[in-house]
């Protein structure tokens, strides 16, 4: 069974956390999904967002966190609707501002696991400034960015991650703006855990999210997804299943990528999946504030 | 207690701390920066936390997040930053998260004249964010009152679960006056009390007083907060039978407590047929003009509005019934005068406006008493 799953996911054995077969029944977290109140979701049938939500729940479950100690903070978009379905402390904010709200919440509740859930537009266009500054501060928030290369919720306008040449409703002749590499941007800005996978590689997402949430500082997981309804249709990329399969075919594990020659790496156009960066030496922001300021200032 | 020479901005920061504010997020801007500087220095002494955010949009978001986490929170800014905060002020209004936003007004629009005073954000404070929403705005006229109204701002924001704007100006913010502050431990702020068990908790339910109690995140009451129209438990809804009562409660809750929220100073003389009505820095001009007029033997009423939003309709209407003429000096092109005209009719209102960074002078007000 395990081998079968690993093979299907094109994963290396050590890379995956295999959930036990009865994980659904066992999972306190899952049992507390707001299933009676909120389901079905607003998402299109076949959307990759459900896979990301599953991975997030399994990661939180795996860490054994209490639902009370977790806050999900989201901006606006299809991705940002995710928190409403899950029984945590859930804050659905304004477009682009999830990390800024999350910063205030984390400062007020440093013991809480704060996870910001954002689309590519939410995190990198309107929220780009907050993204780099949260990374720079290394505040203990996990940024889960679902990258579907498009503004899904508003119907398929180009985003800061739309590839060059691709069509969007606001790029009818093809996009002429180069995309942001989300993970590289996060690394350059100071994030202390950065990983990328795809919604095809669900178990890998489980693992990366588990590690990201466990990380003390600012962590980023880019979950590459697809939007068959807008981007897929505009660019004739087939069904949701076709787009899912394309994520398998067009991605490469970092371990395999690292074995390529420099020329081959240079020529690579596939999505590199893996933990791209981890730094455990930088102190997390709220700890720093506590140690450098609160404990040093004479209280009145 | 000792008497200290203090700036309005410093009094605001200390008022916030006295009121229990333990989180400040802001972005520097003249003429409000001293509020941030005092908070950065003083808050940690009280175990509070300060952060300088990347912009005012983030500052506003962060203080809402901080209050969701249970810390009483404040930000301070001036015109350009206040404009940037508007979307999230609306978020705080619709989600009913208490918070205090200080706007030390400067001359606009745009970058305008950063060091010059103005009262040009009166309408922005009321209608700056999109959509109908409740809001409270308080305007102090002295340094000591800046302290007191900041305390009030926190109390109102908690009591009525609404953002409160402390709408002050460069003159009050930068002016120094000797003040004697009360002992902080004597200051009591409204605290939310929740009786329900976590499973029964409804953060947005209909209550008699219109204000359901708020529990911070992390205390076992897991719930959803959204800027979408929502039901009693916070889930988004498009059902009119859920939206309508909610709209009625949220937009009606301040009206239910209007007498407690409305702060005015009425200094009236029997038989006066003329009145001066003002607020903020211009109220100092008004006060001086009235003093001079009275010394000359004239009878004049003086109404000072400390609460400007919700607009004190009852008090202004009553004043309109007493006098033939209401002179409204303000450092803008007549923003609050619009409201006075709405309540007492255009014929009775005489505007005295100045929007070039200079104060309205008592002389300008006195001249209007003559004709
Ligand atoms: C201030 C503001 N500007 C614009 C919008 C409209 N809007 C809603 S969602 C969205 C884009 C969402 O794209 P993304 O963040 O990639 O999320 P997705 O829907 O693709 O998951 C936009 C532009 C808004 N809600 N608020
Ligand atoms: S519009 Fe696209 S991103 Fe949004 S739910 Fe549908 S498929 Fe998913
Ligand atoms: Mg998107």
Q: What keywords describe this structure?
A:
A: 300 residues; alpha/beta; 8-stranded mixed sheet; two-stranded antiparallel ribbon; 15 helices; 10 strands; B: 371 residues; Rossmann fold; 2 domains; 5-stranded mixed sheet; 39% helix; binds thiamine diphosphate; binds iron/sulfur cluster; binds magnesium ion
Architecture overview:
The complex is a heterodimer of chains A (300) and B (371). Chain A has 300 residues and is α/β, with parallel strands linked by helices. Chain A has one domain: Rossmann fold, CATH 3.40.50. In chain A, 40% of the residues lie in helices and 17% in strands. Chain A contains 15 helices and ten strands. In chain A, the strands form two sheets. An eight-stranded mixed β-sheet of chain A has the order 2-1-3-4-8-7-10-9, sandwiched between helices. A two-stranded antiparallel sheet of chain A has the order 5-6. In chain A, helix 10 links the parallel strand 7 and strand 8. Chain B is an alpha/beta fold. Chain B has two domains: 184 residues, Rossmann fold (3-Layer(aba) Sandwich); 107 residues, Rossmann fold (3-Layer(aba) Sandwich), CATH 3.40.50.920. Chain B has 13 helices and 16 strands. In chain B, strands 2, 3, 4, 5, 6, 7, 8 and 14 form an eight-stranded mixed β-sheet that branches. Chain B has a five-stranded mixed β-sheet with strand order 11-13-12-15-16, with helices on both faces. A two-stranded antiparallel sheet of chain B has the order 1-9. Chain B is globular, with a radius of gyration of 21 Å. The model of chain B has no long low-confidence stretch (mean pLDDT 97). The chains are: A alpha/beta (300), B alpha/beta (371). The interface between A and B is large, with 40 and 44 residues. The complex binds thiamine diphosphate (TPP), iron/sulfur cluster and magnesium ion. Thiamine diphosphate binds next to helix 7 and strand 5 of chain A.
């Amino acid at each position: 069974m395990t081998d079968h799953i690993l093979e299907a996911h094109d994963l290396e054995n050590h890379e995956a956390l295999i959930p036990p077969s009865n994980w659904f029944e066992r999972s306190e977290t899952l049992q507390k999904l707001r299933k009676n109140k909120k389901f079905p979701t607003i998402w299109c049938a076949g959307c990759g967002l459900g896979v990301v939500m599953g991975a997030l729940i399994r990661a939180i479950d795996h860490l054994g966190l209490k639902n009370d100690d977790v806050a999900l903070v989201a901006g606006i978009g299809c991705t940002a609707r995710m928190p409403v379905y899950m029984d945590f402390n859930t804050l659905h904010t304004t477009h682009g501002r999830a990390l800024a709200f999350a910063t205030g919440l984390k400062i007020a509740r440093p013991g809480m696991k704060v996870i910001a859930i954002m689309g590519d537009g939410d995190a990198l266009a309107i929220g780009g400034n907050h993204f780099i500054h949260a990374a720079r501060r290394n505040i203990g928030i996990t940024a889960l960015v679902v990258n579907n290369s498009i503004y899904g919720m508003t119907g398929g306008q180009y985003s800061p991650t739309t590839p060059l040449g691709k069509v969007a409703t606001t790029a009818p002749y093809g996009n002429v703006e180069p995309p942001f590499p989300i993970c590289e941007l996060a690394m350059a800005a100071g994030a202390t855990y950065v990983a990328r996978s795809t919604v095809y590689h669900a178990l890998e997402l489980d693992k990366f999210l588990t590690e990201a949430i466990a990380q003390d500082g600012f962590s980023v997981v880019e979950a590459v997804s697809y939007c068959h309804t807008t981007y897929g249709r505009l660019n004739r990329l087939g069904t949701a299943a076709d787009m899912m399969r394309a994520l398998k075919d067009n991605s490469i594990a970092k371990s395999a990528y690292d074995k390529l020659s420099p020329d081959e790496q240079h020529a690579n156009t596939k999505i590199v999946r893996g933990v791209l960066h981890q730094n455990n030496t930088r102190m997390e922001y709220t700890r720093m504030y506590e140690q450098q300021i609160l404990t040093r200032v004479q209280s009145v | 207690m000792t008497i200290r020479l203090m700036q309005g901005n410093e009094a605001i920061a200390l008022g916030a701390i006295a009121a229990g504010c333990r989180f400040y997020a802001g972005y520097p801007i003249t003429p409000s920066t001293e509020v941030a500087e005092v908070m950065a220095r003083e808050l940690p002494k009280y175990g509070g936390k300060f952060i300088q955010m990347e912009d005012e949009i983030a500052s506003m978001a962060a203080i809402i997040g901080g209050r969701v986490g249970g810390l009483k929170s404040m930000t301070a800014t001036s015109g350009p930053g206040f404009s940037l905060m508007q979307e999230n002020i609306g978020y705080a209004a619709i989600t009913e998260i208490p918070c205090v936003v200080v706007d030390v007004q400067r001359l606009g629009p745009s970058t305008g004249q950063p060091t010059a005073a103005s009262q040009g954000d009166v309408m922005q404070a009321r209608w700056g964010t999109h959509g109908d929403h409740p809001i409270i705005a308080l305007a102090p006229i002295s340094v000591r009152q800046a302290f007191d109204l900041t305390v009030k701002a926190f109390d109102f924001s908690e009591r009525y679960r609404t953002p409160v704007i402390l709408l002050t100006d460069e003159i009050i913010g930068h002016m120094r006056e000797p003040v004697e502050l009360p002992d902080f431990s004597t200051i009591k702020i409204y605290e939310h009390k929740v009786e329900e068990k976590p499973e029964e908790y409804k953060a947005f339910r209909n209550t008699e007083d219109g204000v359901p109690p708020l529990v911070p995140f992390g205390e076992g009451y897991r719930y959803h907060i959204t800027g979408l129209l929502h039901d009693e438990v916070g889930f988004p809804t498009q059902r009119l039978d859920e939206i309508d009562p909610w709209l009625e409660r949220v937009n009606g809750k301040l009206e239910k407590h209007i007498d407690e929220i409305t702060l005015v100073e009425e200094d009236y003389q029997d038989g006066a047929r003329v009145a001066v009505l003002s607020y903020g820095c211009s109220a100092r001009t008004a006060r001086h003009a009235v003093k001079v007029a009275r010394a000359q033997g004239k009878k004049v009423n003086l109404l000072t509005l400390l609460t400007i939003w919700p607009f004190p309709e009852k008090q202004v209407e009553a004043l309109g019934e007493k006098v033939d003429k209401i002179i409204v000096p303000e450092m803008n092109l007549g923003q609050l005068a619009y409201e006075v005209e709405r309540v007492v009719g255009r014929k009775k209102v005489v505007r005295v406006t100045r929007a070039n960074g200079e104060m309205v002078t008592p002389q300008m007000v006195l001249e209007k008493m003559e004709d």
